[in-house]
Write a structure and sequence with these properties.
Helix 3 (45-54) crosses helix 7, helix 5 crosses helix 7 and helix 10 (252-261) crosses helix 12. By secondary structure, the chain is mostly helical. The chain has helices at residues 2-22, 25-32, 45-54, 57-61, 103-112, 127-130, 135-145, 170-177, 191-201, 252-261, 274-281, 286-298, and strands at residues 77-80, 83-86, 228-229, 236-237.
Length: 307
């Protein structure tokens, strides 16, 4: 009996050690981490500003209920089926924001979902999309963030029930839903479609809201962009594939208008979290919004039965 107990304890210890190794940020970085070679170059702040709006940084990280959307003190509550997340301070405050970060740490956060102190970020921070950003865009975006007003004050911790409050398990989640790859255009894409695909799939992170998710919170690959339950737990988000149940009847100009004004072809206006997206894309270059619309029109239609 004693040998059985000892054997079980050894197996449990080995299992725990294996879990600890597999779920570590270091193991993920070793297998799927990107190697950056040019982050130290001077950032293009103009491009960084454009990426700031196209990436939707202000949507989550601007201080709620104040007019200046470049004050990134965080605090917005993001309710989800897994609990409530609170967007952190990403202003350049040296203690409470990202002011003391290096550009390498920022790039790792955006592409691997890991904080400078080695903790996994929850995927409410859409690094599954941001991982597609090019090295130059990561550098430019961080450079622009560093020019903004530092905001003092840390945000409260997330309010998550067990087992979702165990960050280490995110190491396993990443093996399933984070591939670590930058965007690569397919050979069949025109330059315009490739640019639109990059913006939609990367900084725009449109699929994060407009896709159904499985019970682990991962996007269901075959249903990408087909809408589904609102990730914040209330209502639904629309199908944005060119199916009759989606945006089939929308022209490219209709989509551009929605993104930059919030007005739909029927005269109605977008609601929910899309309102903040519209504020962002009102600041984006028309040429970028144009190719995003072109890419969305090129997606394979996905039919979604209304419930």
């Amino acid at each position: 009996m004693k040998r059985v107990v000892v054997g079980l304890l050894v197996l449990a210890a080995l299992g725990l050690a294996g879990f600890w190794i597999v779920t570590s940020p270091e193991a993920f970085a070793l297998v799927r981490g990107r190697i950056f070679t040019n982050l130290a170059a001077a950032p293009d702040l103009g491009k960084g500003k454009t990426l700031f709006w196209e990436g939707g940084c202000a949507s989550c990280h601007a201080i709620p209920k104040q007019d200046d959307r470049t004050k990134l003190g965080g605090g917005l509550a993001l309710k989800s089926p897994f609990g409530t997340f609170y967007a952190p301070n990403i202003s350049p405050h040296p203690r409470d924001g990202v002011g003391s970060w290096t550009v390498e740490q920022f790039a790792r956060a955006m592409t691997q979902g890991v904080s400078p102190d080695g903790r996994h970020y929850y995927p409410a921070f859409p690094y599954t999309s941001y991982q597609r950003l090019s090295e130059a865009d990561l550098r430019d975006l961080f450079g622009f963030l560093k020019t903004l007003v530092p905001v003092e004050g840390k945000v409260r911790d997330h309010d998550l029930p067990f087992p979702f409050n165990i960050r280490r398990t995110l190491g396993g989640w990443k093996w399933l839903f984070l591939d670590g790859r930058p965007f690569v255009a397919s050979a069949q894409m025109s330059p315009a479609i490739a640019r639109g695909a990059y913006l939609v799939e990367g900084p725009g992170h449109c699929a994060e809201c407009h896709s159904p998710r499985n019970f682990l919170g991962g996007i269901i690959a075959g249903m990408r962009f087909s809408g589904g339950p609102d990730p914040e737990g209330q209502g639904t988000v629309p199908n944005i594939t060119p199916d009759a149940t989606g945006i089939k009847d929308y022209s490219k100009d209709d989509i551009i208008q929605i993104l930059q004004t919030g007005l739909k072809p029927d005269g109605d206006s977008v609601g929910g979290g899309m309102g903040a997206v519209v504020l962002n894309y009102a600041q984006a270059p028309k040429a970028d919004v144009d190719v995003m619309a072109e890419y969305l029109k090129s997606l394979a239609p996905i039919k979604v039965e209304k419930k």
